[in-house]
Design goal:
about 0% strand, mainly alpha, about 65% helix
């Protein structure tokens, strides 16, 4: 007898016994006829319940496995995140802020906030490979792209952090949902800086050559992650972050992505986008609020 059949018989027997004993204890049996009726009802009930348990067991197993995996990935001690913090500390700090922004925005529209936060942690893990070539990991006055002296090559290195991240995620058996977020967080946006640089040098080039391969965001979580990533990067470059700068930056990034048709495949409508916008503004305003200056000698 195979294990599933043994398990099924065990469930039927156990549930029948429990139902029957409960009924006996509560004196539902008055005569021999009611005894037989109760036994049959208990057996039928047990078969139905056992069938439902066995039928839903694989689904429940998948749900629990996914939940355990997400909880493990949410822990910042994962080897991929430790490597990122050591190899690309600027990117690591950026990712923590992006994760916070994305998590709150996801909650504002009822999207999967845990998945979005974890996607924020891992979306740039591919930058561990060439950390020094990304601006958030460079010291003042340092720019390795000057030595590369090729806008196309520099753009290719920048774009490759997505494919490198996907490979690292797959090698570490990250869930497909996280891998999809890594792959979609830049969509098919263009690396405008190097494209403009190529144009200024009169190179024969097309804007498509400077675009990420995509795909464009397909889920609300991917849309939120794309916006969080771009907004945080833009805000970080501001000399002074004021409420006006925050609103202008959020509006600029959202409008740019809409104009570039990055969200045409996603289910995010105008109403949801408005809530996402307000969430970004609220979260950033909290992060960059100005402390009140107290008179000298008073407690702070």
């Amino acid at each position: 007898m195979n294990k599933p059949l043994k398990y099924g018989l065990f469930l039927v027997t156990s549930i029948t016994f429990v139902i029957f004993i409960v009924c006996v204890l509560f004196r539902f049996i008055n005569d021999e006829f009611s005894f037989l009726i109760l036994l049959v009802i208990s057996l039928i009930s047990a078969i139905i319940i056992s069938f439902l348990i066995i039928l839903t067991a694989p689904l429940l197993k998948d749900i629990l496995a996914t939940y355990r995996t997400m909880m493990r990935l949410e822990n910042l001690s994962h080897p991929l995140l430790i490597e990122l913090s050591l190899e690309a500390p600027g990117t690591y700090n950026h990712s923590l802020i992006v994760a916070n922004l994305a998590n709150r925005a996801a909650k504002s529209i009822g999207a999967n906030s845990i998945l979005t936060r974890i996607g924020g942690y891992y979306h740039d893990i591919g930058k561990s490979k060439n950390a020094e070539l990304f601006i958030e990991n460079q010291t003042l006055g340092e720019n390795p792209h000057i030595e590369i002296n090729s806008p196309a090559k520099s753009a290719k290195i920048i774009m490759d952090h997505v494919s490198d991240g996907v490979k690292m995620a797959e090698a570490n058996h990250l869930p497909k949902e996280i891998i999809d977020l890594i792959e979609q967080h830049h969509g098919t946006t263009a690396i405008s800086f190097f494209y403009q640089q190529a144009k200024d040098k009169n190179y024969k080039t097309k804007k498509e050559d400077f675009r990420y391969p995509g795909p464009k965001p397909l889920t609300p979580e991917a849309v939120i992650l794309m916006l969080s990533d771009a907004i945080e990067a833009k805000i970080r470059l501001s000399n002074k972050v004021t409420p006006l700068v925050i609103r202008e930056t959020v509006d600029e990034i959202i409008n740019m992505r809409i104009k570039d048709r990055q969200f045409e495949l996603s289910p995010v409508d105008n109403a949801k986008m408005a809530r996402i916008r307000e969430s970004f503004i609220e979260t950033l305003s909290t992060m960059y609020h100005h402390r009140v200056k107290y008179p000298a000698g008073t407690h702070k």
